[in-house]
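Q: What changes when guanosine-5'-diphosphate is included in the input?
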Amino acid sequence: FDPFEGSYVATDYDCSAPARLEPSRKANATILFLARNSDLQGVVTSLKQMEDRFNKRFRYPYTFLNDKPFSDKFKQTIVDLTDAPVEFGLIPPEDWNQPGWIDENKAAANRKEMQEKEIVYAAYRASSRLLVPIMARDIFSYRNMCRFNSGFFYRHSLMQKYRYYWRVEPDVIFYCDLGYDPFLYMQDNEKVYGFNIVLPDYIETIASLWNVTKQFIAEYPEVAARNNSMDFISDDGGETYNLCHFWSNFEIADADFWRSEAYSKYFTTLDAYGGFYYERWGDAPVHSIAASLFLPRDKLHFFNDIGYRHHPLEHCPIGELHKQGKCWCKEEENFDYHWYSCMPKFERMLQS
Ligand code: GDP
Ligand code: MN
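A: The predicted holo structure follows.
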């Protein structure tokens, strides 16, 4: 397949002309950023790389979502960086804020407890080069963000028209040239969830997520797919969660999966339990458990050829793939086979 079929021939002194035409075949897809106005410089860093490594040739539309209106400066800076269409959307407050039925006293008690614990984590994490240092972040909005990314982004009015999305965060690095269209790859191979890095989560943030999940599956056994990836996320056949998850700051996925009846029911159950506020459930374990249990394992795709860094971890393609993508990361920094990576479990699961 040649995405540049029907090629436009630029004269070699005409540097302003597009070197090539937009590919003739594209997927129904968008590149999605959730961001605050204050994230602008980090967004610019990510977007410029997205353009250079991939999208200036493919021109997929960008979608920006925010719980506050984007500033004119934010919008203008973004629009000036790309020839692709860009849309900016406001998240309705009811899709963002803590719902009224959450017991605020209970939520506040947990925030306090977590805050105290996170001090311990900070010390522990600082001792390891690889673990995330806890920043003094807005503990309220982080929970809203996790809930929004779990259950709302794919229902936003700007997102409804799209099937596939690539989630991008501020301040990430893309190391390799991408010579093909990953959305079409997903579509043509009937893939549903694409990921790049896998690691275990912190049990303290999701203490009861697995129990709630088990109860959900007991109530709706039909949601569990045959040939699912239970062996990736559980070492004992589903009794306990081994905490492995797809690091969801990178996702290339089919949003129709989140819109499906199985996932909708799952999200509603989790949300009713209140774990996004009584604990600090992340969208990463929520997405990962759903993708692992409600999908056959061949619907998952490891984007091994996409060199990617979100502090403090990176996936750096090795060997042939490194050369093929002209990647500029260091192969020895690749996280896949680090002791903390869940990649060996994922590979063992695929081989079993
Ligand atoms: P981390 O990767 O877990 O450290 O979390 P980030 O701070 O990177 O946040 C995850 C994503 O949500 C990023 O794309 C942020 O820009 C976005 N985000 C986080 N908090 C907010 C918020 O309060 N409002 C908006 N609009 N976006 C947020
Ligand atoms: Mn981030």
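Observations recorded in class: The longest strand covers residues 29-34.
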